[in-house]
Amino acid sequence: MSQMNRRRALQLLAALGTTGLAAACGSGTDTADEAKPGSPIKIGLIVPGSGPNKVIGDEITNGFQTFLTLNEGQLGGHPVTVVPAEEGDTAKTGQAAVDRLVKEGVLALTGVVSSAVMLGIRDAVEQARMPLIGSNASPISLQSVVYIWRTSYVLNEPGEALGEYLRQTLDESSRIAIFGTQGQSSRDVFDGLRKGYEQGGRRLTEDPIFTTDFPNPGKGAYTGSIRKALDRRPRPDAVFCHYTGAQAVQFVKQLYAEGYRGPIYAPGFLTEGTVLSQLDDGEKGEERALIEKNGIHTALNYSADLNNTANRVFASAYRKTYNVSPTTYAMASYDAAQVLDKAIRLVGENPTPQQVNLALGKIGQIDSPRGAWQFNQSRTPQQKWYLRQVQLDGRMLANVVINELATLG
Q1: Crossing angle for the helix pair 223-230 and 245-257, nearest 10 degrees?
Q2: Residue 134, SS3 per DSSP
Q3: What is the pairing mode between strands 381-393 and 396-408?
Q4: For the structural domain made of 156-300+387-408, what CATH number should be given?
Q5: Interatomic CA distance for residues 137 and 254, integer angstroms
Q6: pLDDT, tens digit (0-9, with 9 covering 90-100), for 68-86
Q7: Would you say domain 41-153+306-375 falls under CATH 2.40.340.10?
């Protein structure tokens, strides 16, 4: 946060009441108070405004706005107007969003929740020669791009990080039941799991069970698939799964309802956002007791309880504004704003999309709420992965970091 001036740092200290802000923001100079802002710029924000992914879109929007709020509404010294566009859930709707934003003269694009939309707009972004800073997980197959950068992660990475952990902690004879939605996202995750686990002679003995990709699954949506796995002998020693949002809530509930009492392992999406509040049925509830006793462990690149200066600044500002803890979606969008800020600052006056894209390759290390990271050759983060466990934090269930897993990317 060194770009912020001393006056702004003092304002934030007063507003947020966070002692860590002094260390994060106090390196500015008085001369910055007199600096004139550059020419106004527009940034296109592609997010879903309805449907099951709207909550993720809202968090991506809020994360980007948090960075702007902490930096006087500027990126790289230029006043910013954020231009939202409806992502939808298909390549066609994503393409329409890109086309409209290009016509409106935005300097860069960011957002994009859906992996299918990200793949669908690839050619449009490359042809427009406009940088897109994707702020959600993206598929392995998005390769050889010039204008697409990502501040979240590639979908095989959480599986790989957990695969290495399970190989080290589970007995070789352990049976792992694997569940996920139909589609490429789950296949990417499971490919990562296999890569991390199948070393030193280890083999995953179970084929994944793919379930229908219901946006809002009913109470019996997963019962048949769960019974299929649990009826086999010996019963699973562990469950690995890939679900998010409403799917995650129903899968965990139905897994417990069918009598499973072992640990659950998953990419962090399983317990991000509002999932834990929907699973938490109170101090005397059966589901809370089962979660506490048997354990839900997730791998993710971020947790709101990480103890570093950048996260204290970000998480404090986010909680003050939105009255909830930030998720990895919000964090990755905050970092999307941060990398744009660095790149635009390198370009200087009158930046063009092509100049910003070139500068993105020169920004170096990012001081992020997740910990320091930098872009690798495939334009994705080289970053740490954390093992989180669902635990009580006061009276509420929360994702608590218990260990570092690996550095991937």
Answers
A1: 50
A2: strand
A3: antiparallel
A4: 3.40.50.2300
A5: 26
A6: 999 999 999 999 999 999 9
A7: no
